[in-house]
Amino acid sequence: MDDTFFMREALYQAEAAGCLGEVPVGAIVVRKGEIVGRGFNAPIGEQDPTAHAEIAALRDAARNLGNYRLPDCELFVTLEPCAMCAGAILHARIARVVYGARDPKTGAHGSILDLFAESRLNHHTVVTGGVLAEPCGRLLRDFFAERRQQRLRERPQIKFILIGRGYCHLCDDMTEALTPLLLEYGATLEVLDVDADNVLLEKYDERVPVLLLGDREGVEICHYFLDEPKVRAVLAQIR
Ligand SMILES: [Zn+2]
Questions:
Q1: For residue 83, how far is its CA from the centre of ligand 1 (angstroms)?
Q2: What is the whole-number distance in angstroms between the Cα of residue 149 and the centre of ligand 1?
Q3: Is 34 annotated in the active site?
Q4: C-alpha 163 to ligand 1 mean position (Å)
Q5: Catalytic residue (one of 54, 80, 184, 217)
Q6: pLDDT tens string for the chain (239 positions)?
Q7: Which of the residues 20, 27, 76, 212 has an alpha carbon 20 to 30 A from that of 133?
Q8: 170 CA → ligand 1 middle, Å
Q9: What is the DSSP string of the chain?
């Protein structure tokens, strides 16, 4: 069986992590062609910053084999190991590491630093990177893209209420000036003619985050809309 066969097994573990809302990274430990340990990334669910896929797979294998050292084992992981996991792999005396995608943020096989090349630490472990790198990386990209979308969907709806005395020219000017911001923040705009009607103000104040713009007495924040940095500062507080 070649490396891609076992990397697919690690990918199944990564998918399991993704289904639980964890960053999808999976790992397996193989000894003489047999899977002896499995693990996936679960720091949120486990409330454990060390609960990376490699650590989980190493623990599983060590328990199954009854040995804290795994000298004739290979570890397959979908993402380049971080410094913590590289340390654990070296402590376990893993013979060979095979990984999928590179990790430009925390990778410890050359992306950030190379602990495996440090001869004062490592006499045991050889490393092969880039096995099924595309599907391993795509799983992560899709996960983060979906999470970004989710956050956008969950963002509170912002409603601008434009208050005019009659439909004054100020409202028209402001509507035009606001359009790019409305698009950027996914906000809606409502134009109200609330001449002498304070009830409407109270009603909207209660229910939705509102930026009011008006030319009537007592509503003094129309300058927010003329001053983009100030509008952004207000929006940042709402978000
Ligand atoms: Zn790690």
A1: 7
A2: 26
A3: no
A4: 54
A5: 54
A6: 799 999 999 999 999 999 999 999 999 999 999 999 999 999 999 999 999 999 999 999 999 999 999 999 999 999 999 999 999 999 999 999 999 999 999 999 999 999 999 999 988 899 999 999 999 999 999 999 999 888 777 765 666 666 554 445 555 666 676 677 677 766 666 666 554 445 445 544 444 444 555 444 444 444 344 455 655 665 555 54
A7: 20
A8: 57
A9: --HHHHHHHHHHHHHHHHHTTS---EEEEEETTEEEEEEE--HHHHT-TT--HHHHHHHHHHHHHT-S--TTEEEEEEE---HHHHHHHHHTT-SEEEEEE--TTT-TBTTS-BSTT-TTT-SS-EEE--TTHHHHHHHHHHHHHHHHHHHHHHSPPPEEEEEESSS-HHHHHHHHHHHHHHHHHT-EEEEEE-TT-HHHHHHHHHHS-EEEEESSTT---HHHHH-HHHHHHHHHHH-
Q: Which residues contact 125 (CB under 8 A, 6 or more apart)?
A: 89, 90, 93, 94, 95, 96, 97, 116
Rounded to the nearest angstrom, the distance between the alpha carbon of 182 and the centre of ligand 1 is: 41
Token pair of 55, please?
């650590």
What distance in Å separates the CA atoms of residue 128 and residue 43, rounded to the nearest whole number? 26
